[in-house]
Structures are given as structure tokens and as C-alpha cells.
Amino acid sequence: MSRFFSTAYEYDSDTSSDESDLLSSSEEELLSSSAGEDNGNMSDDSMFNDDEGDESDSDADFDSDDSDSKPYGPDWFKKAEFRKGGASSGANKFLKGSSYADSDEESSEDEGKKVVKSAKDKLLDEMQAVFDKIETAEMSEDWITILNEFDLVTRLLVRAQQQNMGTPNIFIKVVAQVEDLVASGATEIQKKDVARAFNTAKQRVRKVARENEDALAQFRENPAAFDREASAAAPELGGPGSGTPEKQDINAQFAANKSVNLASLAASTDATFFTSLQIVIESRGKKSVNPLELIKILEDQVAATTKPYEKIVGLLTLIPIRFETANNLAYQPLDQWAAAFDNYAELLKVLQDNFATYRVSELASFNDNIEQEPEADPDTGIKTILGSLFAFVERLDDEWTKSLLNIDPHSSDYLIRLKDEQKIYNIILQTQLYLEKTLPADKKETMLGRVFVKRLDHVYYKSEKLNVIIETNAWKSALAADSSAQSEYIPVNGADAVTGEYITTLVNSLSDILMKQDDSFLRTRAILYRVFFTALNGEFEAAKEMLLSSKVQSNISKSNSSLQVLFNRVVVQLGLAAFKTCMIEECHQVLNELLASAHLKEILGQQPLQRINSNVENREDQCIPYHQHINMDLIDVVFMTCSLLIEIPQMTAFYSGIRVKRQPYSQKSIRRVLEHHDKSAFQGPPETSRDFVLYAAKAMQKGDWAASIEYLKSIKSWNLLPNREVVMVDLIERIKVESMKCYFYTYKRFHSKFSVKQLADDFALDASKVAESLDAVITEYEINCKFDDDKATLTVDSNDEITKLEEVASRLNKEYKMTKERLFPSRRR
């Protein structure tokens, strides 16, 4: 009988070999597989081995009194972890043996040792991993992997610079590594994707090498010096040589996964300013650290110090930590934003007060030892500290914009928040003036491009009067901070000298500088800003010529969402500019295609931020704050009014039997609205802006120009136009002319002659204007009419004209045939 069926089988090593012949083949397989899988725990002394030495070892490993330790019954052949009793059973303990227990203790000890690395060390480790992967890929000339890893290390460099690490040595080593690979050339490449990767890597490494030319030259001279990376191989936290005692204390607490009392460490009697600062820097990004606690420590340290260098370094560390409080929020809390703004204003003041000694620049070299001040320039004696001032300004502006997108635009909170725009613009101007004085001449225009774009962001959509106010206040603030402040690009003789001409010069000058940039994003944005500003000021022809000559529209579909939204806004503003100058045909042509879209709000970026999917990247780029919106009701009224003046005379001429070329019309044209209105069962008085335009069109069809004008004057959206009075005068004149044309088309079949003087009196027009307008339509539509010699009378030749009765009969006949074919399709021949 097979032992598989034994219910109370007592294991005896002496009988194991004697009864081996009783095992079936399947049982032997189970036995061998179990022994093989447990081999790591039991080694050679398996319970299934027939050797005598194994027998003695097995007997010594378990207690004979413990019944649970003996495998018995149908479970005897199973793996230890699947036996009855689970991991806690004595049988499992027996099968594991002492060696397993030892290894388990060692693994638990290893798990207790948690190595916590700083963000800097993690970043350097990732770069080192990239270096190793490229070295491996070099052997097989895997250029796709080399290209991907090189792209990764360039992205890691951006992260390193965001953490004020400068350019790590390992990055220079990777660039030199790829540069050498590219220079050595590749063997004959058969695959197109590999050849493409090689060419791309060649181009990109050239660009990066050009940007780091000095560092690469130093690496070529002394490669061994670049093997030593600060914190690249940092010792374990809490171990020997891990820094100051305070730093060892905090690292040990992190390693033990305990809460860290940063305030007590930083405020200890032995802690200096730089010790506290180092504690804060090492604590950033760790889960058990509250950023508000770091902020409180730095606030106290910065307030207590009087040395300029310490204050500059402290503020350069404090401001980014304030921004980190908004990483998981829709926008930065208003109190933290205000505090970050005050800290930046304080930093700018310290730099201006110590302009001859300390400066902050993106071009400075990285300082490994934060306690030691940078070396002074031998010629000027100036110490340059690594940092990006305008990055703080950009973040302040971005967080301000995000807050406007998330606040209810119809609440008082929005208006209160909007007042901070003046403060932001003031700091943008002051930062520009500081950078103009500190940047080298050969890189000045290139690095000021971001500043100029930000200034245009706050200027291009405002009216001239509003821009004069905000620019005047900005210059007053700049001159109060530095009485000798002056811009070499857009100079101004005092804050009182800011006028409308200065604003136009400002926009044109900044746009011209940005158009020379290599960055296509900045160039395109500058062009669109300039076109929008020019159109906003009513210069339609100049704005149209700028847009057409720039050829932006040919590639705008491939641009990012923010540029596409800006382009659509420019098109709408061009249409409004044409309407302000009463260029009806041009306005209709510009707006016709854009307004045919069913999602006009979305393509103009005027949808609420909450309606955009939260998974979409750069949601803020697809929306603009409410105060920058173009009124949708005004756009609709302008387009429908243009459609009224163009399409109603054509419709009247067509229905009067005149052969006119039918023009295509969009869904929002007045013709479609009229068709829908005529089909409606109930037609009430006008209520909305669309209704007023509709009733104005119906009055124009009858030649009642006075009623048409009265309906259009009732629209309140006209108050949004800056030159409302001028527009209404031109609009009334055009309505009179078009109403007179509709009257002529409708009643020419009933009259043989028209008196020009009578038409002029009926439509309140000059006789010359009436004669000119009628002469134009007679020539255009080839109507059989002629003026007498003095153009006082218009004679109508109606030989080929059909009467009204014939027109109605023809229309009814056509409708009868269509109905008959629809009801009786089988009778078609």
C-alpha cells in the first residue's frame, strides 16, 4: 500500500529505502520536486535522503515529543509552506532548519537598516546609472539605447539645476563619453532606426558640448578630478563621516524612521547659521518632514542674520521651499504666496544694496561648500552666487494666474486677487533692470527673452489708458528702489513720461528683440502679442499685414495649446478691429471660419478650468483668466450684424428674381437664424441680443431702416466697444444704404421709374449716395435699368422680369412636385 493513503504514518528513516518500491511514479515526481525546491533550505541533509549521516542530522533537528514536528498523513510530501499548520507549525520549523532561521534573522536585520538618501545623492546615482548603461551599450553599438540614456541625463541636469546643484561632474563625464563615441564614428549601419538614432545623438551631443565647452575642456585636461563627486558616494546616514554632529543626528533619526525635531536641532546652542541651513537642505523632500517647519526655521535664521551673504543664501533656499507647499495643491496658498513675494523683494533689495560685492546669476559656478563664499572676481572684486532670480518671478506669476483660474470670477475675492498684478509687474520690471546691469553683453538679449515675454503677457491685452497707469506705477516703484534705474532697451525719462506712444514703442521694441531669438516659441508668441495689441488699438490693416507676413498661420496647428489659443484670440481681435472701422466684408471674412466652430469658448481658452480633464497635462495653458476674456456676446453680435448687412440684400435680390451668386453661410449666420425663426410656431418679442439682430434683419427686408436701427441700438453689447459712437454712426449709414437696396430689389418689378430724390428723402441719404449705390448693384447683377443724364431718375426695363404671381406659382409648383415624389416614390419614371 502506498504511503500516500496512510492516515497515521510514522516516519522512520530505516524504512524509507525499504519501501521505496511501493511509491508510484507520480509520487516519485512529487518527491523529487519537493526535494529540489527545498534544497535551498535543507541543503544535502534532506529528510528524503537515504544516507545514514542525514538520518542522524534529521533526528537531532526535531523533538520526538512534538507531534506537530513530524510529517504524517497525506501532507507528508508537500512543501513546507503548504503543509497543514502554515508557517507557524512545528513541521515548517523542522523543515526550515537552523540555517533558514539564521538567514531569516539576517534578512530582518537588513530590513531594519534603511538607507535614506538625499535628493542630490539620488540624482547623482541616476546619472551614474546612465553612464554605466551607455558604457554597456557601447560594446554592441546600440545607438537607440545611447540616445535614450543621453536624453535622460539631460533631463536629470534640469532637475539638478532646479535644486541649485549646478552641473554635476558625472554629467560632464557622460557628455564626454557620448562625444567620444560619436567622434569615433559608427560601423556601417544597416537599420534605418539605428542610423537615425546615431544622427540624432550626434546633433544633440554637439549642442550640449557647445553649452558646456569650458567644463569639457577641464575634463579633457584632468579626467581624474571629475571622478570625485560631492555627495556622489555619501556614507550611510548616521554613520561615521556623515557631516556635522547635528547632521549625523538628523540622519540617524531619519534612518530609524523616527520623527525629527528640526526646530530643536536648528535652535541648539551649537548650531550656527550654516549648520541650520544645512539641516534644512538635507531635510527637504523627506516624508517625515513638514515643509512649514523648515520655513519657520529659515525665517528665524534669515531674520537673525545681518551678513549679506548669509541673508542671500538663506533667501535663495527659503523661497523654493515656500513654492513646494503648493506641489499637491491647485495653487499656492495666498499667505505663502505673499510671504514668497516679500522674501523675493527682500532678496532683490539686499542685492541692490550690495551690488558692488554680491550678485546672483545663472552663469555662476556651483559652490560645493555653502559655508565658504564664492571667490571674488580678480578684476571687479564681485562674488557671484549661483541662482536664477527670474525663475522666482516666473513662479510667482504662474501661481498668481493659477489662483485666478480657480477663484470664482464673479466674486469679490477675484477682484482683490487681481490687484496683485501691479505688484507682479513692478517686480518684473525691477528684475529686468537688475539683469540688464549684471548680465554679460553677449548673452544679455538671449537671457532677457523670458523677462520680455512676461512683460508682454501683462501688456498686450490691455487698453492704452490702463497700460499707461500700470507702467507709470511700475517705474515709480523701480525708481524708488534705485534712483539711477534705467533700461537700455526702452528708456524713459521719469515715470511721468509714460504715454500712449511709449506703450506702443514698448510693445514694438520688445517684440522686435524676441523675433530675433532662436527659440521658435518666443518668436511666435512675440508676433501674436504684437498683432493682438495693434488690432486692439484699431489698426486693422497694419495688424493684418503683420500676421500675413509672419506666416504664423501655416504652422500654428503643430504648436502647443497655449499658442493655438493665442492665435485664435488674435483672429477674433482682428475681426473686431475691422468692425470698429466699419469694414463689414473684412470682418465677416475673418470671423466666418472661426465662428463656425461648435466649441468657440474652448478654442479661445475661455472655458472654466474645472471643465478640463484633470489628467490632461498643462491644463492652465488651455485657459486664460476671466479678466482677459473677449466678450462672447459681443463677438456673436458683431458677426451677426455683419451677416445681416451682407446676406439680407442678397437674399432679397434672389427672392426678387435677380440672378445672384449664392454665398455659403455658416451655422451662426443670419440666414440660418431667419430660417429657424420662420419655422417656429411662436414668435415673441425680442429678448436676447440675437433676437434684436433677427428683428432688425426682418425690418431691413421690408426696407424699414428706422425700425432696423432701433432694434440694433437696443443691444447693450455695443457699450463694450471703446469707440461706440463712431461705430454706430457708420453702422447707421450702412443700414440705410442696404435697406434702400432691399427696397429697390423688392419693388422694381412694380415700378417703371424711381426718383432718386424721393429715395434719398425716404432713407435719409444724400442723392449722390443713392445714385452711387444703385449704379453699383445694377452693374454687379446686370439689372436692366438705366439712369437719365443727370441721374435724377432711374428707368426700369421689366420685359424679362417675372411678376410676383408667376414667382409664387413657380414656387408652389416646385413644392408640389417634391411632395408628390416623397409621398409616392413608386410612381417615379
TrEMBL record:
Alphabetized InterPro entries for the sequence: EIF3C, EIF3C_N_dom, PCI_dom
Alphabetically sorted, this entry's keywords are: Cytoplasm, Initiation factor, Protein biosynthesis
Which Pfam families did the record assign? Answer: eIF-3c_N
Q: Which domain of life is it from?
A: Eukaryota
Please give the PROSITE patterns that the UniProt record associates with this protein.
PCI
Region of interest: Disordered: 1-75, 94-115
Q: Which GO terms describe its molecular function?
A: RNA binding; translation initiation factor activity; translation initiation factor binding
**Gene Ontology, cellular component aspect:** eukaryotic translation initiation factor 3 complex
**Positions with biased composition (Acidic residues):** 11-30, 47-66
> What name goes with this protein?
Translation initiation factor eIF3 core subunit C
Q: Where is the PCI domain?
A: 626-801
- Can you name the source organism? Maudiozyma humilis
